[in-house]
Amino acid sequence: MPPERQSIIEEARVYLYKGRDLCEEGKYSEAICELDKALAINENLILGYYFRGMAYGAKDDCDQAIENWTAALRIDPNFTTALHNRGISYYNKGSYDQAIEDWEAVLRIDPNNPNTKKIIERARQTKVRPKSSGLDIFSSLGGVMIIFKLGFAPEDEELYELTPEQYQHYYATEENAKEHLGEKMYMILPKDSQKYVELASGDVFVLTEEDVILMRKAEELIENYCTKSEKEFNSFEEKLCYCASVMPSIVSKGTKYERK
Hints:
260 residues; Serine Threonine Protein Phosphatase 5, Tetratricopeptide repeat; 4% strand; 2 domains; three-stranded antiparallel β-sheet; mainly alpha; globular
């Protein structure tokens, strides 16, 4: 390979790895800038599209995330992680048929993936469930219960995937861990010091990827309840107290918001 070409490839890699590191640090806009540079040099850099899709997805820009997952799949149609993540972006924007299509493609490549089978079923249930009021609490029940138990809704940059050692410990110690084999799992590390102390003083809280999807929909549901009330709220805590008073009691049972 000519030295000039080798130098260009190395330059693209420098931007790629810098973008990857920024993405892992939660600096998504900065990550996108670095990944743009990498892809401007080498448009066939599959990991450039992968990490840029991750960054856009974390910024809740589903369309841009989908565009990047699609670009990665043009290079490698069997890139199951890109298929899986594009499905999540489709799901988050309400395009359930396209989400299911992507996840079924994952299963054709990896037939024994238990996580994908579960989220396909979840998407099918969400797709066919009738919408009576536009505020369907039962489709997001698990996510609402998680938020009430935590007392806040963690941001994406507060979620950290388990390390290989933590995965090993989780599978070895948790009673129902085998149900989540193959799933991504996340620990919560709040930026707020008080929330961190409160969380650290209790049981270790681990979320599955499906939990995170449900939690994001639950946030929207909580906001809808509060907006519809036409009340003024000064904090998310006040919103949870209000929602506990009007939502089914099961969502706050066993938490500090439980109705007495």
